[in-house]
Hints:
By secondary structure, the protein is an alpha+beta fold. It has a single domain (12-162), classed as Alpha-Beta Complex (Peptide Deformylase), CATH 3.90.45. Strands 1, 2, 3, 4, 5 and 6 form a 6-stranded antiparallel sheet that branches. The protein has helices at 26-41, 131-144; strands at 47-49, 59-62, 77-97, 100-118, 124-130, 160-162.
Amino acid sequence: MRVLPVRRLPDPVLKRPTRPVLRVTAAVDRLTRQMVATMRAHPRCVGLAAPQVGSSLRIAVMDASVHPKGRGSHGLLVLINPRILDAETGSIQREGCLSVPDLTGNVRRAARVRLEAMDQAGVVQVRWLEGFEAIVAQHEVDHLDGLLFLDRVENLATDVFTRKTYG
């Protein structure tokens, strides 16, 4: 499967809200499979939203289980038209993003969310996500709303950091 190029800040597609998918077509299926391949091609990547690969569709993919913090996650999730219905309790966690490769930041996120989204078959699923998986989902939904983690940090001077490199 083709790995797609990842758009980086300041690409304007990253700041535009996406449009809903009206039905799951062969083109939508192909895009989701390419997004999964792209996510998997980047070490430590646990989620990818369509704007990050230049699409304006409301699609994200995620798999928190590949990260040490992702214990008990649902595994690979394809999220078409995702919406967060409920959010419970919050904490501040460090986040990074393929589209902002040189920075990380402290972001307040809910520790538990109820998420509604269509799957690849076009079936609406509602599930509770907790911990790291909930944080990843919120990060990806933000991308679909035209927001980056930098838009969520409380103080740009004290809560944004140069990314550590891993060998």
